[in-house]
Amino acid sequence: MIGAALAIARVKLVLELRRREVVFAMLLFVAATIVIVHFALRADDGAGPRAAAGMLWAAVVFTAVLGLLRAFAAEAEEGALDALLLAPVDRAAIWLGSALAQFGFLVVVEVVAVPLWWLLFFQEEGPAPLPVIAALLLANVGIALVGTLAAGLALGARTRDVLLPVLVLPLAIPLVLAGVTATYGAFGEEGGGFGPLGPLGFLALYDLIFLALAWGTSEHLLGD
Domain segments of the chain: what residues? Predict the structure, then answer.
């Protein structure tokens, strides 16, 4: 099953990178958001690290929703999804392959977005890089798991483009809160909240919970 999931993820990544539609749209959206907010906050010296951290995570989450709109769309439009369902592989492999592809898209986007964010907001002293990177990677896992699960639920709906953000964004709020807290804490400030787990521990626990939930429902997720 893992081999089938990796093969599906590889095909989805290669096809989308060749088409350049989704990845370029995500890159343009996140870069435009960071630049616009930077100029909006430039005159506000009191905005500080918390505003910069919140802006980064808002940009990441909304950009992720843009990519999730195409999670199963290409397979459904071309009839490839029916072929995948008839293939002798576990249906969980289809969901897992799509989640891995979404994780890859997010990493590609953040490779561009995070250095741009750092350059524009922190000319002098910025946050410690390791907590920020760890929080982004853990959040990417959660967004990919939750987003792919929601994309599967909304697949058969005519208003999929409207329904998907409604499903994803409320579930992504805990990820955003933990990510902002972890990023703000990387400045050496007291972020507060999340108890003994800390924000990174909370993100890891969130990922495990939704991994188990999505894995258990994947057999019925793509069924008739």
Answer: 2-221
